[in-house]
From TrEMBL:
Species this chain originates from: Tibeticola sediminis
Family: Belongs to the KAE1 / TsaD family.
Protein's recorded name: tRNA N6-adenosine threonylcarbamoyltransferase
Binding site for substrate: 138-142, 171, 184, 279
GO molecular function, one term: tRNA N(6)-L-threonylcarbamoyladenine synthase activity
């Protein structure tokens, strides 16, 4: 089964071909990505209308690129998968429209996919795929959740952020430090030369006794520091110290809550997914803490942490393999800009 996946929920156009043979773990045949970061950078964030228009420009050339890379014709596609939500409505409509038009022309079925399920399952494309059941830490630009995952489509929410997402905390703090959008990767690079103990920043909800997160207060604390420092922030070492302290606060909460989720479920396996899963400090601290407990940690390949088409094609392939999805022969579509993962029910 050859699955074409199309992702267009935000500011990345991603297209990929994933092949599933029998019940084996699906394999990535080809993938192509166009990031709109340069286009949105001038505005300090994603401009929805510009995002939709750029998806229109990119999606067909990227589709041709993956077919060429995989060395197959468009007729070889057995199933077309697309991101149905959550995300920007206009951006989602581009991917959904193209996917359904293509499938209709080819007389092949389509399968709508939940973007977060794509992130969640993306480590299955790594060299060391996880086994069920596991605890998943989903840390992206719009979400911060801990889930218990018993199988494909069997997701139980254990806790989530009550305000900002971890990626948002990285991005907003980075903006306060004058770093360009999206600030997460830039802040983490700046943090490498800094002292994580230089500034005392809050660890919100660290001892709340539940598995929820809160990052809005951290952004305010960083703002207070920035104002207090004033011109002193021009010193490269001070900037690096504040970046390192901010990253340390976010990472400590993510690590402690992940360990608490492992305790609460009694599971011995952790999967980390979403853009913040690319963060080096998070990976090294999770690896160290989990090694001490004999817990295995699985991550997506670094280039598949942020949005991509491969995770959408993969999620569709895994859903079909597990018998939890019904590929559709009807080509009417809708999108779901707001859509909790626990609510998926096709
Ligand atoms: P969602 O998936 O919740 O809809 P999204 O698709 O925008 O949101 P992702 O593409 O998964 O989110 O991840 C993007 C986020 O990851 C951004 O907030 C970005 O700053 C953050 N990020 C990426 N790399 C790193 C890194 N190395 N360190 C910290 N944050 C990072
Ligand atoms: Mg993005
Ligand atoms: Fe995402």
């Amino acid at each position: 089964m050859l699955v074409l996946g199309i992702e267009s929920s935000c500011d990345e156009t991603g297209v990929a071909l994933v092949e599933a043979l029998g019940a084996g773990v699906p394999r990535l045949r080809a993938h192509a990505l166009h990031s709109q970061i340069d286009m949105h950078q001038a505005y300090g964030g994603v401009v929805p209308e510009l995002a939709s228009r750029d998806h229109i420009r990119r999606v067909l050339p990227l589709t041709r690129e993956v077919l060429r890379e995989a060395g197959c014709g468009v007729d070889a596609i057995d199933l077309v998968a697309y991101t149905r939500g959550p995300g920007l409505a206009g951006a989602l409509l581009v991917g959904a429209g193209v996917a359904c038009a293509l499938a209709a022309a080819l007389e092949k079925p389509v399968l709508p996919v939940h973007h977060l399920e794509g992130h969640l399952l993306s480590p299955f494309l790594s060299a060391d795929p996880p086994e069920f059941p596991f605890v998943a830490l989903l840390v992206s630009g719009g979400h911060t959740q801990l889930m218990r995952v018993d199988g494909v489509g069997r997701y139980e929410l254990l806790g989530e952020t009550i305000d900002d997402a971890a990626g948002e905390a990285f991005d907003k703090s980075a903006k306060l430090l004058g770093l360009p959008y999206p600030g997460g990767p830039a802040l983490s690079t700046l943090a490498e030369g800094g002292d994580p103990a230089a500034f005392k920043l809050p660890r919100p909800l660290l001892h709340s006794g539940d598995l929820d997160f809160s990052f809005a207060g951290l952004k305010t604390a960083v703002l207070t520091q920035v104002k207090k420092l004033g011109p002193a922030l021009d010193d490269p070492q001070v900037r690096a110290d504040l970046a390192a302290s901010t990253q340390a606060a976010i990472v400590e909460v993510l690590v402690k809550k992940s360990l608490a989720a492992l305790d609460a479920t009694g599971l011995q396996r952790l999967v980390v997914a979403g853009g913040v899963g690319a963060n080096r400090a998070l990976r090294s601290q999770l690896d160290a803490a989990c090694a001490r407990r004999g817990v295995r940690v699985h991550y997506p390949e670094l280039h598949l942490c942020t949005d991509n088409g491969a995770m959408i094609a993969l999620a569709a392939a895994l859903r079909v393999q597990a018998g939890v999805a019904r590929p559709q022969r009807g080509y009417a579509f809708d999108v779901q800009p707001r859509w909790p993962l626990e609510a998926i029910d096709f």
